[in-house]
Amino acid sequence: MKDVLLIALFAFLGAAAAGLLGAGVLRLLRHRSLVVSLSVVAGVAVTAMLAGTLTVAWAMFLSSHDLYVVTTVAAMAALVSLATAVLLGRWVAAHSRELTLATRSFGDGGTFAAPAGQPTAELAELARELAATSAKLDSSRERERALEASRRELVAWISHDLRTPLAGLRAMAEALEDGMAADSGRYLRQIRTEVERMNGMVGDLFELSRIQAGSLTLTPARISLYDLVGDALAGVDPLAREHGVRLIGDRIDEVPVEVDGKEMSRVLGNLLINAIRRTPPDGTVAVAAHRSDGGVVLSVTDGCGGIPEEDLPRVFDTGWRGTHARTPPAGAGLGLAIVRGIVEAHAGRAEVRNVQGGCCFSVTLPAA
């Protein structure tokens, strides 16, 4: 038993010395190629075995012939291990270079295409993650391009819509200043109307900037959807009468929701005002609310005649307005973008679909 322990001790000391030496070499070469690292690992394994064997052999006073045989066997094992390590390292390094080139392509704006036949499970997993990241980047680039296009379009529309009333205000102010206005009261009322419209546009821009900057602060409270809809309908009733549009709100379930009452009133107001202005006289705007599996669904259905299918994905984009909505009081095309921003801030979603004779805007909110 004592001899066995001594043999194990001598073998461990020799192998440990070789292992420590190999660890130092690996640290020095840690930034080199994978081929070099694998070669060092293979060399350390064989050297550790050889060092332990030689230490035991010297302690046992083996003959020169026996020591030569042991050394030769270890050397052959070292050659085979080193050759295997180099082949494996070159194979992995080659596939790593292919993966690097593929990664560089989607980093420069292209699409990542994973090389076929990854040599290790880790590289295969990395390729899958890179493919998923590439898909996300493509989607982000597409959203960024669409957002940038909508921003440029919004700036152009805002410039146009502000320049027109400003020119009118200047003309009316000059007429009043020169005493050329036959009915100064009418001019003053018109000036106030234009100022209120521009103030609304500026307010919408400020609200949208808060939403997009993530600085919209919500104060949620538990309120009845019935009361929320009732207040919104009462607020837009004068506008509906002016346009000859009939409001219907008899399909409202009395379900509670946990929302910011002020912001959700703005959502309903924007949807209802948009629906009233797009519905012809003697038309109908219907509001409904009910509980569903996904939460609480609030819908506003108008009689606008429908939205072209190709425009449906853009309805909630910043600055989008229908082709027929280019004259006052069309607004700046921010109302529906504000609707989506406020709803998403409540962890909900806003959608639109065409129905017979018009379209239906629906807002889904988490149930209280």
Report on this structure:
The protein is an alpha+beta fold and 368 residues long. The strands form two sheets. A five-stranded mixed sheet has the order 2-4-5-7-6. Strands 1-3 form a two-stranded antiparallel sheet. A hairpin with a 2-residue loop joins β6 and β7.
Give a short summary of the structure.
This protein has helices spanning 2-28, 34-60, 64-107, 121-177, 184-212, 225-243, 261-278, 335-345; strands at 221-224, 246-252, 256-259, 284-292, 295-301, 349-355, 358-365.
Largest sheet: 5 strands, mixed
Strand-pairing-aware structural class: alpha+beta
The SSE order reads HHHHHEHEEHEEHEE
Broad shape: elongated
Strand content: 5-15%
Number of helices: 8
How much is the average pLDDT?
Answer: 77
* N-to-C CA distance: 75 Å
Low-pLDDT windows of residues: 324-329
Strands ordered across the widest β-sheet: 2-4-5-7-6
Oligomeric state of the chains in view: single chain
Number of DSSP strands?
A: 7
Helix content: 55-70%
